[in-house]
């Protein structure tokens, strides 16, 4: 009667007769009471008790102690009671496996019931009981149900196979359930087909290599027929399954597309997106000139737009996918810019995604609208969104050149608002605009400088400092501005410190007279008072440069900057292709390959878009270049993404080593002691720069040579403190270099003694620590002593020239041999040679002048910073016309791809990405030559096949042959 | 597939959990709570949250988070669509979808969830089928059940589940046969400061309430079907027929359902005139200003009808999020009532009907924090309204015919236009 009392209480509180009453029993003897009620004779009381138990279970209370009592209620003809008991069983069977056996008999009996609903319910529930002992009993009933006459039972049984597989995969395979399941794909009932597909797909996920879903034209036809008749959820399973199929030709592809297109009008957005996936994949195979191709493109836009009027969560997923679609096929949505305009009450995650797509769709045609919107967003409340909007304005300026001016003026307006974070963001993006369009918008610098004090974020401070340094000659008080930052130097973040160092050095090079003190101050702050190795290294490099060769310093520090790319966050095409194949999945939401999601052992096959069959192009590997229409027509010499530009200055170091072609000065000690370290340099800076450098640059050429040739000749007379610093610097010289192991060809005789009056020269070329060396062995086979050696090169293809004199210090006696290494620079005069890597050399001694020619391996011109950013690589690969591609075979090479990759890395051939397709490894590599030419390579290595195929792409295709030779030489040695 | 479902209320308590496979510990929701804490507003919680072993996909409806747990790669839209279906079903069964309603009917909820998914695969999500399996609770039925000991779970295999028209049950009988269709259009628009339209689009739906005996086969044709080129149909609509003849032909589900939804943007309204726009039914004149150094701001707002095709604009509600610096307002409406919440800074003005002869306006001053600088952000004005007996796009039903049954049904079609996200920037 307790129960009735409670009911009355509830009534008193005005509550209806509802299930909430089940929550009210919270007294101590609760379990005990329930037990009594469950064992009651009255059916009604039993049912109420089971309901109470279920209610407790749903809120997470532990009612497992009642297991035997609840199971006792199972044998009933009351369907509701039966279902309730089943619910309970599913939840607790695992914790009470022995008890659960008690239920088996009832299950088996129910599987034979006349009512298909009961049969289905029994087989369904049994599959949910995750107890090994029970699954054994499940097999027989399941086998029957899979062949049941009623499709409702069959379809339930199909799912049950997936359940069982999850519990005991081996059992399912042994019992042959997988084959039965495959047969169900041909079932007459579409719902059964859909469930069989769903079950097989789920099972296939844990067996990546099994051929469970063997798709062929017949089964595809069955699926397409079922597609029209099954439920919305079944349609999703079938469409996702279809997307794994690769049609044989464009006609089959078109016919599948035609039958899938009606799904675009489905009310269920998941169906729509799965259909979009199938269409995006299969249209890849259609010839572009086909009418149907154009029709299909037009049909894709409306459903995508419609997705954006759905609930925000759906919008978010849709937007993430649209982001991929507009990268792959911008033409689909190019007229739909407006639907991406942000509503003020959109959730923040929708706002940010819309903004991203707006920028991707921005073009000259719609830029005015876009800018007006972005400006509006910049006054919103949400800080993250405002920041991104301001940044977006900068990206528009960089992307759409015609709009740059308008963007800059919009940014200036925003700076006038004086809202702190808006100003800071604006300054960061204006820096990028300056990079992209040098010498165009400097008029705004004054306005920027007004806001110097309000900047408190490192990125904004660094950007502002960069601007001041870059345009120091136009800012009257640049020195004061930079000096003001210097006061709190040690409290700044590294980013700002590095930028400040560079900016002051730039300033010094531009206005040497007034800023000497400033530059010394910053150099000593950076080198002596800082613990940060990056900062210290950069400080020393500048210090060295300024003290040895200010002209070179100028060339290095004020060098022309590489262009920044238009779009910084494009997904690289291979990943994009893979993601397009996974539209609608988690991978597409996170823009990461599916392999990044699936846990542990489960492998994932990489999906690729099918190749177009009609057009007959044989574009291998990153073949998107031909697919994506009209991107970046101008040839950009070298593009680095804008994020990298803080380091840009530093990297330039390698490209322009000091030029010291003058006669060797007396190799006296270096006059760097004390504070007068810049004395010599200053004179020459202020002198006429076009004149060849005379010997009045105290001791610097020797330093230049020493820098390259490693500390071979370190004068002992250095002042102690500076010496310490220099020591660091030399360490740096050795340490910056790549791990040794660059390929060095064996020495060969270049000049036989017979031809040179007894002087025999053999030698080779090497690249050590970033410096090209000519390594020579001079042998005197004559009878007299040889002295006064000197060397000169003829003009050559890459401007190779000796960076110092030939250091043969002692006279070379008869039958004596000396090994010399001569550092080379690449800034000499250039003339194209044939073959390209031919070098004509003149060697002089006290006897005569001798001439010979030799060929250097082009690999020694490969610089250390030749590793391209992935996106840049892909953009560049696309940009280079296919005519510039050449293919070679490397025969009899037995390295695996990883060994090859690390070997090549030793010679500055950098592997950027590796992909494995059907057992074939594709390595994508980049090489940068000392004259700034990039060579992109794709190396294909098939396991077990000693012949490699290599494709080279370069804007200067002449070098390909030489590069190929290097590959061969490196790989085979 | 979908592993588990947790229902979380606005105060962050899990009040219901359901597992379709093995049990996933509640602690997985901690990742959700973290995201919830980071979000400034409840609706800003990201819909997909990764955790080390699972993914959480959530929707927020009726201030309840429905958090689904998945373990392997599952299309997120599939999960979100399913969660929406759960919400719709609850609403259908209990009238409202609130924490109290769910708790009141927890056993039915549990039975429903069990019936909707099997091992994470959708099983029965059509309300027609579910209602045959599990009877919706009514006070009468509860009382009857208690007395007679009968149950609210169907004993029979649901008939519709396997037929070629799974959305319709067989053996439907009505004494009054009727079919009603509501054409409801919502206009989404962004109007800029100067009053010109930045974007305007119409989201339309045709909702039906069909109570017809037997297996009726209906056709619905439009005067101007050209308007509908971006449509999503209920599965019952025969797509081929639509493609070929622009006629909607279907065997309707029994009861309430959404026949189709469509989208009309400014472009496809008048394909020849590129700049033409969706007609904007109301205009707003506003003057909201803050002066530097003054602790007062001016607020003036006047509403008027624009292109309404002669129909009255009613149920007008204006709301606006005023800048944080506004302490209070002192405004006078010419009609209706206005409220300002000094905490949330939400101004809302219930205008009612717009009388074209005497335009409603709201004027007065706003007081600002003394000495504070003038607010940076400009408030956006959000407007809701209704226009009866008119579909803004001009969509008109031509005729509705029934085949397959002999009786004469009663037919009715209603049109209505509402404001969706109608925003005016200032």
From TrEMBL, chain A:
GO terms for biological process: intracellular protein transport; vesicle-mediated transport. Residues 629-659 have a biased composition (Low complexity). Its main location: membrane. Gene3D superfamilies: 2.60.40.1150, Leucine-rich Repeat Variant, TATA-Binding Protein. Residues 609-673 are annotated as: Disordered. Residues 743-853 form the Clathrin adaptor alpha/beta/gamma-adaptin appendage Ig-like subdomain domain. Residues 862-972 form the Beta-adaptin appendage C-terminal subdomain domain. The keyword Transport applies. GO terms for molecular function: clathrin binding. It is found in: Endomembrane system. It is a peripheral membrane protein. One of its GO terms (cellular component) is endomembrane system. Pfam families: Adaptin_N, Alpha_adaptinC2, B2-adapt-app_C. Keywords: Acetylation, Membrane, Protein transport, Transport. Belongs to the adaptor complexes large subunit family. This is AP complex subunit beta.
TrEMBL record, chain B:
One of its GO terms (biological process) is vesicle-mediated transport. Residues 176-425 form the MHD domain. Belongs to the adaptor complexes medium subunit family. Keywords: Cytoplasmic vesicle, Golgi apparatus, Membrane, Protein transport, Transport. It is found in: Golgi apparatus; Cytoplasmic vesicle membrane. This is AP-3 complex subunit mu-2. InterPro entries: Adaptor_comp_med_subunit (IPR050431), AP2_Mu_C_sf (IPR036168), AP_mu_sigma_su (IPR022775), Clathrin_mu (IPR001392), Clathrin_mu_CS (IPR018240), Longin-like_dom_sf (IPR011012), MHD (IPR028565). The keyword Transmembrane helix does not apply. PANTHER family: AP COMPLEX SUBUNIT MU. CDD domains: AP3_Mu_N (cd14837). Pfam families: Adap_comp_sub, Clat_adaptor_s. Gene3D superfamilies: 3.30.450.60, Mu homology domain, subdomain B (2.60.40.1170). It comes from the Eukaryota. The keyword Transport applies.
